[in-house]
Write a structure and sequence with these properties.
single chain; about 375 residues; alpha+beta; Butyryl-Coa Dehydrogenase, subunit A, domain 1; Butyryl-CoA Dehydrogenase, subunit A, domain 2; Butyryl-CoA Dehydrogenase, subunit A, domain 3; 3 domains; two-stranded antiparallel ribbon; 9 strands; about 50% helix; acyl-CoA dehydrogenase activity; FAD
């Protein structure tokens, strides 16, 4: 499998970019991030019905389009550049967890809905904020007619609005994956106050919530871990898209902002600053593409390694690019009215999502 950009993938990129230019401009982003849900239902419906991108990674027989993760990466890069307010990353992650679980009945029941626009999310992290098996303390017990899940999950992407929540919980046999209805009795959802207002997170308190076991009892962690790794790949692509956009913003401003009778982009200090950012962004792009290519290959032995590499490098590159964009813009870059701060907040938030660069460099060291 290849991640090279075929004509078909470039057409997909062009379509998504054109669509997002219409629905995810600065005014639309500012409007969406202040709503109760944090995103525009009409835009989400268009993503599902008009573009069909919610089903890119879902097989055709399960209601999807049947493409691979390279196409998801293309979409994620464009949504990152446009700072799209939508539960795209959360839903893609949940879909991949269902696919990885190997439960044909659950996949047939749930995945067509996700491809059609059902908002879903994966709830793993708890009080310590770590996305690791050892941190899962939520429990699941057999009950009449199914299972009951209890515990607390935090930093759940779009957890306050998700219609389907996939929960990692322990049984006597180990960690399992459980599907919970977003409106189920016993589920309390609390929106978290986060730095990044363009991506919502929530705390979920589960008190004996009815749930459906996905896959085999006690054998859910491999599917959960696979889904987290794929989410990291999508997030890295999103970070590259955002980093590229803020670099373009800085370059355009440096060309037009005149000081001492000449564009500030002609000053050597500004040239060096932007050149350094360019090198970082292009290196991050390469790391992201390597991770996407590995995601395309089943059982790639280097998949975990390249995803950690991409997460560490793309996170740092995005934060650096967003911070330097503000510096190039000077005083105006620090104001609420300018979009530069929105990208910096997304970069800072994304940096710690699914583990920060320090964590992933530790994982890299242990793997090497």
């Amino acid at each position: 499998m290849s991640v090279s950009f075929s004509e078909e993938r470039e057409q997909l990129r062009a379509v998504v970019r054109e669509f997002l230019a219409d629905v995810s401009g600065e005014d639309a982003v500012r409007a969406s991030m202040t709503t109760a849900t944090g995103w525009d239902p009409a835009v989400w419906r268009a993503l599902a019905d008009d573009l069909g991108i919610l089903g890119l990674g879902i097989p055709e027989e399960l209601g999807g389009v049947g493409y691979g993760f390279a196409e998801i990466g293309v979409v994620a890069e464009e949504t990152g550049a446009a700072l799209l307010c939508a539960p795209y990353l959360a839903t893609v992650t949940a879909a991949q967890a269902l696919l990885a679980a190997g439960d044909d009945a659950a996949a047939s029941d749930l995945l067509p809905g996700l491809a059609a626009g059902t908002v879903a999310t994966l709830a793993v992290a708890e009080a310590d904020g770590r996305w690791e098996a050892g941190s899962v303390q939520a429990t699941a017990e057999r009950a009449a007619g199914g299972w009951r899940v209890s515990g607390t999950k935090t930093f759940v992407l779009d957890g306050a609005t998700a219609e389907l929540v996939l929960v990692a919980a322990r049984t006597g046999a180990g960690i399992g994956l459980f599907a919970v209805d977003g409106a189920a009795d016993g589920l309390t959802r609390t929106r978290l106050a986060t730095l990044d207002q363009t991506r919502r997170q929530a705390r979920l308190d589960l008190a004996g919530v009815p749930a459906r076991l996905i896959g085999t009892e006690g054998e859910g962690w491999p599917a959960i871990e696979r889904a987290i790794r794929l989410a990291i790949v999508a997030l890295a692509a999103e970070q590259v898209g955002g980093a590229g956009r803020v670099l373009d913003m800085a370059v355009d401003y440096a060309k037009t902002r005149v000081q001492f009778g000449r564009p500030i982009g002609s000053f050597q200090a500004v040239k060096h600053k932007l050149a350094d950012v360019l090198v970082e962004v292009e290196s991050a792009r390469s790391a992201s593409y390597a991770a996407t290519a590995a995601a395309q290959r089943p059982d790639d032995p280097e998949f975990a390694l390249v995803t950690s590499l991409a997460k560490a490098f793309c996170s740092d590159a995005y934060v650096h690019a967003a911070a330097e964009n503000i510096q190039v813009h000077g005083g105006i870059g620090f104001t609420w009215e300018h979009p530069a701060h929105l990208y910096l907040k997304r970069a800072k938030s994304s940096r710690v999502l699914f583990g920060d660069p320090v964590h992933h460099r530790e994982l890299l060291a242990s793997q090497l």
